[in-house]
Amino acid sequence: MSIEPFNRLVKLAARAFYDDVTTKGDNQPKTGRGDNRGIAVVVLDALTRRQWVREEDLAKELKLHSKQLRRTLRLFEEEKLVTRDHRRETAKGAKIYSAAVAATVDVQHGGKEGEEKIKLHTHSYCCLDYAQIYDVVRYRLHRMKKKLKDELEDKNTVQEYVCPNCGKRYNALDALRLVSLEDEYFHCERCNGELVAESDKLVAQDVGDGDDNARRRRREKLKDMLQKMEVQLKPLMEQLSRVKDLPVPEFGSLQAWEARASAAGRAINGDSGSNDLSRSSQGYGGTPMPFLGETKLLGPAWQVEVAFSGLDGKEEDAKSESAGTSLKVLPPWMIKQGMNLTKEQRGEVKQESKTDGTSAQPDFSDDKKSTIGTDDKKNLQDEYLKAYYAALYKKQQELEEAAKKQEELSDIPLSSSHSDPSKRQVGMKVKRDDDEGDDDIDWEEAPLAGNTTESYKVNDLNVEAEASGDDEDDVDWEEG
Amino acid sequence: MFFHIVLERNMQLHPRHFGRNLRENLVSKLMKDVEGTCSGRHGFVVAITGIENVGKGLIRDGTGFVTFPVKYQCVVFRPFKGEVLEAVVTMVNKMGFFAEAGPVQIFVSNHLIPDDMEFQSGDMPNYTTSDGSVKIQKDSEVRLKIIGTRVDATEIFCIGTIKDDFLGVINDPTTA
């Protein structure tokens, strides 16, 4: 069950239809700051990387206010893109979810806060409904085309009438009932108001209605529109046809998903799971990963903790704090191993997010290469790294500024590139304290981490090129 | 479109009709009952052309009425979307005009009337071209194309267009 084509479909649809959607309370003035266009795309993109996700957590990860997120999600619910589930649950209930999250692959997730609360809270969860999205997008395209074509031909349209008083709508098929004896207009059955023909014309009718020129111009405009639509939505339509015969990924209801996810951690992403297995045997050895069977023993709780620090460490300051707390939680005898894990996991998380965007295979193979390569050069790199580190840190801070601007375009590549350098730094310090031997792994992450913005720093350019290539692809498409 | 089909109906006949002319009475009652009705499924029953067979009658308890299942051939008229019909205009107003093709009422809204025809109100409201050569008013005959039908259990209503090639007035009563 491949989810990738469907994710691409969602992303294309998001950019096509929800790019300039603002979700906003009517009472709010439209200020520059409050302009949240593009948020919808970001949220949809984020959802493609998750399955069922608690909305608070999603909000936190996207650095959105939960109200804003909820508004966006409500829009998507109305548009039938996502399914949502609300339930009152105790901390225990939240844990079930967190465990399920920890067990699944592509959720890089911190289910922290909810666990500490003992009160009963209503939590909302949301999930993409791929089967429905496929239908909704197809239907939307169909309607767009039909509307334009009808208007173009101007003959197969059933005129609609609307009552200005009560808002009741009629169409020409009701004409017989609406005609009145007193005058030549149609009258509303309910309030006897005079109906007006509704002009849902896409192209405003010019004043000179009967004018031949005006009509011709209108037709041309329509034709133009239709053509433009064909061209601009071509990628979307192609993706639709590609997806047509594929089995649709189904997550089921929240409860079913949770049960399944926690029962069989990697069942959901069977293919990438096997990938990971093979990789772990080659490169990482016994490195625990959240979705591998062996790791189960270690328990999902601290893994979640670690993922949390990795995710939320986007800002330098916040990061160091969170990293500190996560360290505190670990028992002393575990710290060494824990550090190891942190790095691994960080690396894992980042790769995960990158592969989401593109095809999974190339990234993985590159990853393997770099891992093997690092073993050889380990000593050299140790030295290199230390000298390099200070310079890199400076650079990163500069980068951060630049990267912030990009944030709207692509949330994940950016955020991962962001969080990783900073986290790496903290991780480094701690690591030096207890263990130098870990450096190779750390180093390996560093290149990947810094990559998105500065490729020349790093020696595995392949990963870099692919990641950025993907980004450009998206952007490109938007402009086209 | 017209169809010649076989339909079946259970006829109740009063005992006073029993006798030599039972069959004739049955048929005439059938015609009276059925012709001119409309069913959503088959359309308007225009005429009964023959009786296929009359089944065995069943005497109703208490009333003495007898129920005969009658199979009959008839001509039905059922309008379809896309069909081209000739119709007589019955009413013209600002919103368009109504026309009848036999039993079927058809409404042509003003945006489905060619753009060069404009509504003229007055004693005899009509749609006229700017040069006055073509005029649609009450009793005009028009050829129109059905673009939508509403079929209820006992009623069929259509909307049509004359905004297409070869559609429009075919016989103007004022010039004839």
What radius of gyration of chain A results from the CA coordinates? 27 Å
**What is the general shape of chain B?**
elongated
- The quaternary organization reads as heterodimer
Biggest β-sheet of chain A, characterized? 3 strands, antiparallel
What about the largest sheet of chain B? 5 strands, antiparallel
Number of structural units classed as domains of chain B: 2
Look at the structure and give the mean pLDDT of chain B: 90
State the distance separating the first and last CA atoms of chain B.
28 Å
Q: Just name the CATH architecture of the largest domain in chain B.
A: Beta Barrel
Q: Which structural class do the helices and strands of chain B define?
A: mainly beta
Count the DSSP helices of chain B.
Answer: 1
The structural domain count of chain A equals 3
Order of helices and strands of chain B: EHEEEEEEEEEEEEE
The stretches of 5 or more residues of chain A where confidence is low (pLDDT under 50) are: 105-117, 204-210, 267-328, 343-374, 408-476
Percent of residues in helices of chain B comes to under 10%
How many strands of chain B?
14
Beta-strand segment tally of chain A: 6
Domain HTH TFE/IIEalpha-type (chain A): 6-138
GO cellular component, one term (chain A): transcription factor TFIIE complex
Family (chain A): Belongs to the TFIIE alpha subunit family.
Pfam families (chain A): TFIIE_alpha (PF02002)
